[in-house]
Amino acid sequence: MGVEGCTKCIKYVLFVFNFIFWLAGGIILGVALWLRHDSQTTNILYLQLGDKQAPNTFYVGIYILIAVGAVMMFVGFLGCYGAIQESQCLLGTFFTCLVILFACEVAAGIWGFVNKDQIAKDVKQFYDQAFQQALMAESETNNGKAVVKTFHETLDCCGPDNAIGAITPLWRDDLCPKGNILKGNIEFPNCHKKIDELFSGKLYLIGIAAIVVAVIMIFEMILSMVLCCGIRNSSVY
């Protein structure tokens, strides 16, 4: 009892695609949790300068990824079960969930593209404010120096990307990691550049995962509708 011929082949192909989709959801969930608890980002984004918290735009994207990964695992299981049971109701629900997920992914991709430079920019501005406070005579009354040292030690860098780094060499012995005290200003790793590398690398990884998932979802939407129509037109029913 059930579908036959090409429709039966589509049924098992859809099952395989849904299993891959379920695995992809697990991978995205795992990567999102890793990004959430990565020592570099947590050390920096949990910092507080006086009453100002470090920018949390990056974590907003991570929480979205965690939710997407969990939903993908649920939808993948739903698709696998619907394909094996040849249930039009489950396949219709699965297709609807895919459409919603695809729309959310497109929206999240647009949001990420618009904000990809803003994330690093906000963190660099936060670092510059802390750096300026650390250079002030009354810096002992705030935690600017502690914030700057955390940036330097976490990213293995020293100094901002502006004229202060070139004309104020005396702060290095106090603020920079001792292992980074090299000969000459030119040899100091730049913190602005390190911040860009930190977030651009992670966003690149997220972008690849999003493209792969989008392609899988498009195939699954097509296969689920073909299978649903095949079940409906089957002479068995």
List keywords for this structure.
single chain; 237 residues; mainly alpha; Cd81 Antigen, Extracellular Domain, Chain: A; two-stranded antiparallel sheet; membrane; immunity; Tetraspanin_animals
Q: Would you spell out the secondary-structure blueprint of this structure?
A:
Elements: H1 5-37, H2 39-45, E1 48-49, E2 52-53, H3 57-85, H4 88-135, H5 144-155, H6 163-167, H7 172-175, H8 191-233
Antiparallel strand pairs: 1-2
In short:
With 237 residues, this protein is mostly helical. The chain is built from 8 helices and 2 strands; from the N terminus they run ααββαααααα.
* CATH class wording: Mainly Alpha
What is the CATH topology descriptor? Cd81 Antigen, Extracellular Domain, Chain: A
Mean pLDDT: 78
Please count the helical segments. Answer: 8
Distance between the termini: 9 Å
* Total domain units: 1
Protein name: Tetraspanin
GO molecular function: lipid binding
Subcellular location: Basolateral cell membrane; Membrane
InterPro entries: Tetraspanin/Peripherin (IPR018499), Tetraspanin_animals (IPR000301), Tetraspanin_CS (IPR018503), Tetraspanin_EC2_sf (IPR008952)
